[in-house]
Fold each of these.
Amino acid sequence: MSIIWKNLSALFLSCLFIGCASQSGNTVDTNSKSEVVNDVIMTRRSIRSYKQVPVSRDTLKSILDAGINAPSGQNKQSWEIRVADKPETMQSIMDAMALSNPDVINPGSCFRGAPVMLFIAKDDGYPFSSIDCGLLSENIMLSAWSMGVGSICLGSPISFIQNSPELLEMLGFSENYSLAICIGLGYPDEKPEAKPRNKAKYTFLD
């Protein structure tokens, strides 16, 4: 990991955990943190090609810790996360997916070749759990990017996984929790260009 990524990660995570509140005498420092956070947001890309290089558990724990520091309604933290970061675990998941979904020619393509998969479930008993999981996911992807780890948010594997009793048992979510989001993580093997954004989608009410 380059020195630039390390510095970017340290500054970004400091903003996540202690905030960017301005105090007398530290305006320059606050501005610096703000610029780093904005840079992480504006440069993040969805990655669809990954180097087959492991992401260390320490790095994953840092990413997940940033994730669960996302805001949630009434601080319910209405999510559960399962992490698949071993090749043999990923292979077992893909084998089970293929068994339950024979029309899926290459289940691995559903995960875009990411060496790590996060499976995020929502609490079906809480009506705003989907929002909580979305906030959690964004924190995860931004934190990952600040450390040089790419990510992609995936919805297509969900239906395949829901069709597999074996996979659902493997994931072992609590009762009344259901799979909501899949996130692939890994070191990028591509540099996608930014896609255009439609600024007409936000409007000020005068």
Amino acid sequence: MATGTMTCRSCGGSGIQRINDKRFRTCLDCLGQGEPIKSHNQELGMPLPALGLQNSAARSEPLNAVVSSSVAK
């Protein structure tokens, strides 16, 4: 019987994911609802923005770890 809703593939619709034999967590794909979450963009028929990572070239510049770690402080 088709109801028009999809079941979450990650948790099987239960909303709970098993981490190991004694640990469980709320499914992050459906946020415990059992159905995939639609973004506001999908509801409005708008495509999600592209991050541009697929087409960008990797940078091959040397990285100075001392400089980058001092900036992080």
Amino acid sequence: MKTIYFKDLPQYYNQELEISGFVDKIRDLQFVQFVVLRDSSGKVQVTIEKNDANEAMNQIVTKLTKESTVKVRGILHEAPSVKLRGMELIPTDLIVTSQSAEELPIDILDYTNKSNKELRLDNRFLDLRVDRNYLIFKAQTIAEMAMREYWLEHNFIEIHSPKILGTASESGAEVFKMDYFGKTVYLAQSPQFYKQMAMAAGFNNVFEIAPAFRAENSHTAFHATEFTSVDCEISWIESHHDVMDMEEMVCKRVMQKLTESIGAEYFELYKKEWSAELPTFPRIPLLEAKKIIREKYHYSGEKEYDFDRREEELIGIYAKKEFKSDYVFVTDYPFEARPFYHMLDPDTGLTKSFDLIFRGVEITTGAQREHRLDVLKSQALMKGMSLEPLDFYFNFFRYGMPPHGGYGYGLTRFLMRLFDTESIRDVTFLYRGPNRVNP
């Protein structure tokens, strides 16, 4: 039988139908029983009068537990007196397809209770049943779809790069080692080298949405050992500003699609609004941004060549106040704070790089890459790196390499700030951190 989603029920008034869902609420009164069912799209009330004809169903409901799954056949009626959507299903048959244990390990609806966070993660399958959490993953789906839509319209190719590497990626720090048939291999921190290989292959524009791994023994709200990284790379650029131009358009497309698709649901559940129209993202060089923070907010960061968390928050506040923007690009980082493959500006000695800050949290790092092999090797040596393990990477640059650049985007950090949650754990389907590898 065709699956009927609860959101589509008004199409079926006065028709016999069959629906399935979780038991959300049960009210067993003297003359009538009410069972509220829930699926991923909404809720509906099932009303069962207590009489001889319904005796079998009445007995089932008496023993029914919340979060059980049931299948109900009956007639759907308009019912203005019913507060839940002004409709009710009058059943002719009710079958329990899976009986839930009476006592749940967590209170599903108590999503604000901070004391049981670990217990909720232990029982994530229950935690995700609440509609507020489900909406987060609808947003994730729409955001990824919007990015893909934009990139495909602009002649991008999607790639799937390997996650098992023979050489530690990028700096070699904070990588997971694993045994590979008696050899030591590494899990990829990012697809960076392979995005650049695609540029050497003449792909022009590529993107990838895939897992990445960081062996960071970090317990902050912003870090995970496994996460979804959104990466893209484009050829034939003049500077890192071309990359920022592209990312700004992608971010605007994402917010447009989110607002159009689920903006009303977001307001209903969170009592907040998104805007489909975003102002131009301001671009502020790092050293200038640090000066602004010192002068306006009387704060000096702990890092000389980068932002600390408080500086990210403050530049976000500044961008919102001065430019009415939730987004701000911080640009032109010193070489000390950037990987060896970021291009240096010969006039300033700074890298042609940027971070994108969204509501006070860094969600992107990007740059124009160094495409000249001799300069690239020189910069690797400046970082104290050994050239031999990187020879496979340098080989990409030996036979012609377009000027290119790109970025890596933290999807969970974006969702965390979009929904104003405490941690990326709240917006990750199954979080992985130093102390969590289950479920």
Amino acid sequence: MKRFLLLTTLLLSSVILMNAQTGKWTAKGDAALLKGKYAKAVSAYQKGIKADEVEAYFSLGNCYQEGYGVAPNMDEAAFCYYKAAYLGNMPEAVNRLKALAEKGLEDACMLLGHCYQVGAGVTQDLPTAIQYYRKCKTYKLTYLIEALQRELAEAAEAVKTAEKKEEAQDEVYSFVTEAPEFPGGMEALLTTIARNTIYPAYCREHAVKGTVMIQFVVEKDGKVDNATVSLSAFPLLDNESLRVIMNQPQWKPGILDGKPVRCFYKIPMRFSM
């Protein structure tokens, strides 16, 4: 029994020592945790999160993982570790996510994938992000996976562009005489986006919000193609934004020197509770 208590104390101490500079509420939670006052610790960490103490997410995640003051919940633990990694660039939080992902937890795979997608707590690595996203069968991140694959393909192609000057005739333009236009104009575009966008249930449950910036190409015939995420908010929000954009009707193409040309276009997709 003494050995178990000693081991538990050492584990708790390692979590606390990792956060050398903690906020007020996180420090209170750490002190309560060491005294075995787990419910009080959880309450303090939750207050720390409301006070924007990023390290409180990691500590609360540890409570959910170990069952300190709350019922063990690996999905909630994964989300807390993700927030610590995403907001605080915390490698140890990423390591915790990896451990949960290795056990087959889909939430952890999705959240870890996003860490690799944006470089939160790890070096950005799109192939690894795709690898983890593929394991999320429940969430079906098909559009996001395809967009990341396009991004990788375009990056590889960019290396070869010096040898392909003849492709200038098929160039994608950022500035044109007449900009591409959605049928019915901007008001119709915004109405269509609002009508077709579905706020992911997971994001509602976890109060996830943010803005996703989608860049795409309006082809010469008005088709919307090659959509990618230029500003990510969250995997499910990214995926939903891509779904909505990629399923739009044909636009009026951009015009340059009196001729239709391929054009870049960006749309911000805002998600708020």
